[in-house]
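User: I'll paste a sequence; please echo it back and then give the predicted structure.

Assistant: Echoing your sequence first, then the prediction.
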Amino acid sequence: MKRAIKLRAKADQKARRYTQLLADAIGAAEDAATQMNELNQLYNVDVSTYTLLTQALHANSGQEVLVDHLAQSTPGEEVVLFNQVPDGNGGQELPANPLFGELVTGTPIITPPVDFAQALG
């Protein structure tokens, strides 16, 4: 659980950093587009103001949306609650799980299903 929480926090940290970088890049593209528009008017030309990528980012997400998402969420906001769960496997060690980097050897331990309504009583 500690490892999973740590991985989740690291992913959140990266997402925040990349979201801020993307918002900054969209803002820089908007600044460049403003300058390009002024040059287009000054010299009576029609040079595109955005690249295809920055136009798509500007049109579909926009800097305000990304900054708003960041403002609505703070790091570590999720509260971790540990609930007591009935012992469904009789105290046996849980089988190895490759998802957690454990080597799976032998046959897995399969216990009969637990009637949680009866266990919670």
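The mean pLDDT is 80. The longest helix spans residues 2-43.
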